[in-house]
């Protein structure tokens, strides 16, 4: 019997950045508890967003064939579309464990046609979706290990997982485990390896699978294709070569690491609010459901911004700042701004004038 069959639910824990002890404790507690659960295999990988495309953690995820649960310190949308960019896909399945603002959004969607559902229908969608379920769970949904374990048990039961052999795999791919963590996690893994070898099982853990692999903090846009209309405004706007197109002429974040750290400029000009920067301080830009701003009216920014700038003005300012830091000339509104944006800005200013009598 193989280690992971389609009847086994694979759970991948994407670890938090840094060394926050509370987050580590929660991750470890969940992993340890699930280790004893039949029909579930558990793997820890570094922070999902930080892993380069050739990282062994992403390679592991690509090899998972069956139903998959990914837990991470990111909004559900950010997890889903970061995975998608890495070619890790599935039918997005609903989890009952949602961060508070995601749950609020679901309630709103029940009452209204507006919101993320309508945006999803407008997007070009994903491609090559395999026949399996994918659950993305934001760790911020709860501080209680038991909440995650109960939900994962429910998901395991829902896919009618029957792991008759009753052994589970815990591997540590990458990350920076402490000595104590290594001892605690690798010991069961080695016992498992010995047991498989003894049983003549096919799967073994080689040393490479448990060696830490560094991941620095990264910053790049993630496209939500359920919203993206492939309008190409982002590729026009970005002057740093981040965007490209794939073989199907779909917009693609091609050169992730060419993006300028801390700059979210293109998310503000995307008309579909489809560009996510998972670590941006503004929840909507970081992937919470709802409106981002873009050129739609973002009242917080409009009225609360330092100089009352619109989203477009802010985006242009942010882009100019990065150009200057690169030793290039600022371009202002003269490059990559479509006429539609200008018209919308004029309309917005006219609306505001009217509001002020
Ligand atoms: S601007 Fe937004 S909707 Fe248009 S191609 Fe880029 S991500 Fe997609
Ligand atoms: S944030 Fe700036 S540098 Fe990064 S992709 Fe968008 S426009 Fe380009």
Describe the structure.
The structure is a single chain. The protein has 357 residues and is of the alpha/beta class. It folds into 2 domains: 9-210, no CATH class; 230-271 and 295-355, no CATH class. It is 39% helix and 11% strand. It contains 13 helices and 10 strands. The chain has helices at 21-35, 56-63, 76-85, 100-111, 116-121, 145-158, 179-199, 233-237, 265-269, 283-286, 299-304, 311-325, 339-355, and strands at 9-14, 40-45, 68-72, 91-92, 133-138, 170-172, 222-223, 243-245, 251-253, 275-276. Strands 4-5-3-1-2-6 form a 6-stranded parallel sheet, with helices on both faces. The protein has a two-stranded antiparallel sheet with strand order 7-10. Strands 8-9 form a two-stranded antiparallel ribbon. Helix 1 (21-35) packs parallel to helix 6. The longest helix has 21 residues, at 179-199. It is elongated, with a radius of gyration of 22 Å. The N and C termini lie far apart (74 Å). The relative contact order is 0.13. The model is unreliable at 1-6, 105-120, 162-170, 181-212 and 292-305 (pLDDT under 50). The structure holds iron/sulfur cluster (2 copies). One iron/sulfur cluster (SF4) is lined by residues 223, 228-234, 251, 270, 272, 274-275.
Q: Using DSSP, what is the number of strands? A: 10
**Low-confidence blocks of residues:** 1-6, 105-120, 162-170, 181-212, 292-305
Q: What share of the residues lie within helices?
A: 25-40%
Series of H and E elements? EHEHEHEHHEHEHEHEEHEHHHH
Kindly report the average pLDDT value: 79
Strand content: 5-15%
Sheet of most strands = 6 strands, parallel
């Amino acid at each position: 019997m193989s280690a992971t069959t389609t009847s086994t639910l694979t759970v991948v824990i994407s670890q938090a950045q840094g060394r926050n002890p509370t987050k580590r404790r929660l991750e470890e507690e969940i992993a340890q508890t699930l280790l004893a659960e039949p029909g579930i295999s558990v793997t820890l990988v570094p922070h999902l967003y930080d892993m380069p495309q050739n990282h062994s953690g992403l390679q592991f995820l690509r090899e998972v064939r069956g139903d998959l649960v990914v837990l991470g310190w990111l909004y559900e949308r950010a997890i889903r579309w970061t995975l998608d960019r890495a070619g890790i896909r599935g039918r997005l399945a609903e989890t009952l464990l949602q961060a508070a603002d995601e749950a609020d959004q679901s309630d709103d969607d029940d009452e209204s046609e507006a919101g993320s559902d309508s945006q999803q229908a407008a997007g070009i969608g994903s491609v090559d979706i395999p026949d399996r379920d994918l659950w993305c769970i934001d760790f911020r949904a709860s501080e209680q290990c038991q909440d995650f374990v109960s939900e994962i048990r429910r998901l395991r039961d829902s896919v009618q997982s029957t792991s008759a052999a009753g052994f589970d795999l815990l591997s540590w791919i990458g990350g920076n485990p402490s000595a104590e963590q290594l001892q605690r996690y690798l010991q069961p893994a080695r016992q498992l390896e010995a047991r498989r070898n003894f049983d003549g099982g096919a799967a073994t853990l080689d040393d490479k699978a448990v060696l830490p692999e560094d991941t620095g903090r990264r910053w790049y846009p993630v496209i939500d294709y359920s919203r993206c209309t492939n309008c190409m405004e982002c590729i026009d706007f970005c002057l740093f070569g981040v965007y490209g197109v794939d073989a199907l002429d779909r917009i693609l974040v091609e050169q992730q690491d060419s993006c300028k750290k801390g700059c979210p400029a293109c998310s503000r000009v995307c008309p579909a609010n489809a560009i996510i920067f998972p670590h941006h301080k503004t929840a909507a830009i970081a992937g919470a459901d709802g409106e981002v701003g873009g050129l739609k009216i973002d009242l917080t920014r409009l009225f609360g911004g330092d100089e009352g700038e619109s989203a477009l003005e802010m985006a242009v300012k942010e882009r100019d700042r990065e150009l200057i830091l690169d030793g290039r000339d600022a371009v202002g509104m003269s490059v990559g701004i479509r006429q539609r944006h200008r018209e919308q800005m004029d309309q917005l200013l006219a609306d505001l004038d009217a509001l002020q009598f």
